[in-house]
Amino acid sequence: MKKVISAAVLAALVVPGIAGAANANAQPNMLQRWFGGVWYGTVRGEMSLMNWKNDYSSDVADLDNKSESFSFESVFGGSLAVGHIADANWRGELEAGLIGRFTDSGYGADFKLTIPYVSVNVMYDFANNVYVGGGLGVALPKMDLGVSVYNKNLGDWIAFDAQERKVTPKFDMMIGYSYGLTEQMNLDFRYKLSVMFGPDVTENGVYSNKYWLKTDLGTIVSNSFSIGLRYEF
User: Fold this and answer.
1) Taking all residues of the chain, what is their mean pLDDT, rounded to a whole number?
2) Gap between the Cα atoms of 177 and 167, Å rounded
3) d(CA 112, CA 105)
4) What does each C-alpha distance from 89 to 41, 74, 128, 174, 214 come to in angstroms?
């Protein structure tokens, strides 16, 4: 009986110790790493330099198969993000923003391009407060095209308006620097290179049943420079 009691007491003392040692040596799994720890929110103001090409085609002879390149056109926008710091180096965030709105006039048309987006970003923070990262998301570029044409039969100007929104993948690469203002507040500087694809718009019914003007945007490349405030909670 004494041996049985002694064995039970020994087990009560040793087993918890073994279990505690095992728990102490156990590493947190991915869910524990990503959903524990520190969360943050970021607000940004942004200037973007956009590049793309408009291809025009028309049943009007002097507008057939022409193109116009736009290089480093400046627009202003901003974004909001919610993120999570997984460990000393890795963090991820969900970002929603507006690259900006560009307007232009030419070839008898008023052109507007507006680009909102949503993306998931993953960043790696170095010890010197510099970080690099990448993002994958969805952009929703919207093109508005207004055309004014003089109709000889009516002896008056006729206005036509069309718009088109495209859902396109958006690919991002970024590099930035975070400067600590307080223990929880950081001033964040970021450069981001984004690539996406533009929509096309067709104006119909000006001359007989043919379209008068079609505008097709190709690949859109955006160089964005932003400054933001990141608050950790």
Assistant:
1) 82
2) 31
3) 9
4) 17, 33, 11, 16, 48
